[in-house]
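Researcher: I'm preparing a figure for a lab meeting and need a structural model of a single chain. I don't have an experimental structure, so a prediction will have to do for now. The sequence is pasted below. Please return the structure as C-alpha cells so I can convert it later.
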Amino acid sequence: MSVTRLKRKHRKNIARANNKQRIIKQLLLTPVLKNVDLDELKSRFNGGTTSTTTTEA
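Model: Understood. Here is the structure written out cell by cell.
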C-alpha cells in the first residue's frame, strides 16, 4: 500500500503553527509594566505639581 501525503492539510498545519508563534512573539515584544507610580509619572510631565502617593498593584 502506498501512503499519500495530504499537502493542503500539511500547509494549513504549518501556517497555523506559524501564526501561533507570531502571536506569542508579538505578546513578548510589549513590555510588562509592574508597580508603576502614576502620580510620579504625571508629575514629571506636569512639572511636579501633583501629590506623591504610591499605587501598588
